[in-house]
Amino acid sequence: MAQPPTVLVVEDDLQLRSLLKRRLEAEGADVFTAAGMVDAVGILRAFRPQAAVVDVGLEDSNGLDLVAQLAAELLVIVITGNRELSLLRRALALGAADVVFKPFDDRELAERVLGRLRQGSSGSGRAAAAVCLEWRGRRTLLCTRLGREERLSAREAQALRLLLDSGSRPVTRDELSRAIYGEAWDPDSRRVDALVARLRGKLNCERCGVQRGLTTVHNVGYRFDGSIPAAD
User: Is 127 inside any structural domain?
Assistant: First the structure.
């Protein structure tokens, strides 16, 4: 029988900490909890969890300091009520797999954590490189495992290039809208999300898991966790 996933929740709010523990346990995980960095470090010395959910605003420390220690060894999801883009970028630069803004749905958060573990995310949270995809020309992707080609529209190719060039930094919807449509992003318009959805469908490969490389960063935009080399 497979061992249940193990998750460490680091949150100084008792009510939220208890809620996340109950939800993750209901989804089949073994859960350790800590109120701050000191408690978390003690747990990490005694156990080896596979993932950690870390609040930025801990009473005894800055949660990002803990993220920096953990991200090389396990999957880290950051939770925070601070929506500043600079904090998001720093968390991702330190190796966090995702940043979730409060308030959030506990079921959705549990699915994000456990879903990434099921996908076999690395400790840094970066998905495996998209080794089965290659560029053919400027607008064609070839799945080398299936021998299938996908022709991208000019806008789809432009969006993918922008995502690839950004590295680990998420690309905001406004950046995509300005680069592709020449206009600021309109929250009432779904054309950026529709474009990304079409692109995600063309990246999909059930045999190699490339569809998991295009990550939605909650309330921000999108990030591509992988690489697509040019064909020889």
Answer: no
